[in-house]
Amino acid sequence: MRTGRPLLVAAALAVVTTGAAYAFGPDAQVTKPTALKRAPGATTTTSETTAASQTASCTTDARYPKRQLRGVWIATVKNIDWPSRTGLSAAKQQAEYVRILDNAVKRRLNAVFVQVRPASDAFYKSSMEPWSKFLTGTAGKDPGWDPLPFLVAEAHKRGLEFHAWFNPYRAAYDGDVSKLPADHPARVHPEWIVKHEGLVYYNPGLPAVRDHVTSVITDVVKRYDVDGVHFDDYFYPYPGGGAQFADGAAFKKYGKGEKLADWRRANVDKLIAQVDKAVHGTKQHVKFGISPFGIWRNKSEDPTGSATAGMSAYDSIYADARHWIRKGTVDYVAPQLYWPSGFKAADYDVLMPWWAKEVKGTDVHLYIGQALYRVGSTDTPAWTRPGELPSHLTKNRKHKQVKGDVYFNAKQLLTNPLGVLDLIVKNHYSHPALLPLMKDLGGQAPAQPADVKLQGTALSWKGSPGAASYAVYQIPSGKVGECATADARNLVAVVPAAGGDRQSFPVSGGGAYLVSSLDRLHNESAPAKAAP
Q1: How many beta carbons lie within 10 A of that of residue 240, not counting itself?
Q2: C-alpha closest to that of 97 among 123, 126, 69, 70
Q3: So what CATH class is 69-440?
Q4: CA-to-CA distance for 182 and 175, rounded, in angstroms?
Q5: CATH class in words for 444-529
Q6: Key word Transmembrane present in the record (predicted)?
Q7: CA-CA distances (angstroms) from residue 403 to 62, 177, 216, 400?
């Protein structure tokens, strides 16, 4: 992703490379087959069927989407977002994290993507890899607590979906492997690594590497209550000083007559398919997605690519997002479209529709990676305008395939550059949103809430078995029709389930109130009306 190299590298590549040697993606004119996803045969409850049928013919307003992913990346590598520096006490680390989450809730976000494995290290207790040095300052040093249960629980407590973000191939930031803990996989298995331009990578061409990465991820999915597994855009190394990636021996052993570039892409594809199968085989409901570099290929390299002139992820880092979409080996993609509208080398207005077209006809969700970190930058005039980033969200509304946005990075949730988050909340996030449904991941709507009562300013109801949260709607006119819950105009809160038999939520204002039950995937029951 943007981590581990200068944050402006993507823009710099697009601007300064001679002859636009690096590029982004095109307007594809290809027939896209439906992605072959898992078909777990999820059941549907009567209340869910009723709720869906009641709202199917309703007119909705695109300004108030009922379902929309609104996420933020929380980068731990090099202490970009959290913790702010190494060596903090557990209490200070926790306080910093909670502050980020509270600001996410304030902006009506509903998901966090937290980096738990920046470089073959762990922000959780692991028997496979050492503790991250970004916790204590020393790789392998026990911080005295296991952060991950806290990170997940605090997100869930606030109604935020938690995606565990892994970097698959980065083994170490220090080229001197001897400085790593003795039990680090790169030292135990020196045959796995490739030293490249001062960093250490696992060789994507080795089956043992794919198995190790998959085992690390499976271990986290088994032991922790994460909602998703997430990769960023780091696969084979980004172009740097011109050195060749030294994987010749592996290519000779496993290449089987393929071209080197095709073999490298196939290696990445194999890992992604393997992780996808492992994640869903361990817990069906856990989502698996990737945030690729914003340009698949340029039209100059492939007529079905985008009308852009930046780095091609397909050719430079061997990441073929189109393949993952078509094969259905991801549940979502969140391409990093970190350029403004009108940016010649990589125009947002070209790239966003290109990606929308790529997922059309598939069940792979599309979320857009937005460059919150660029707002206020003076090197590109568009980013000096507060309205640039909000305009991206307005344009997204014209493409129903765009199901949300993820912002890089969390630090800007606290600084609110140019007041841009105020604008986004006012014009786009004025109401909460449920998560987009991924029906093939199973789940089912819980039973309707029972005994819903409104007494003064206290709305309460009896909890439903299996409910992870509840949606609260306020209909100001008091006239409850079948379209009252069709979009988010009347949605006032998504309330995480609390312990105890009865749930409650403080309300204000008149009108009628409805409450529905949601499972962890946000399958929704039919609403129940509050009795006075």
Answers
A1: 12
A2: 123
A3: alpha beta
A4: 15
A5: mainly beta
A6: no
A7: 11, 42, 29, 7
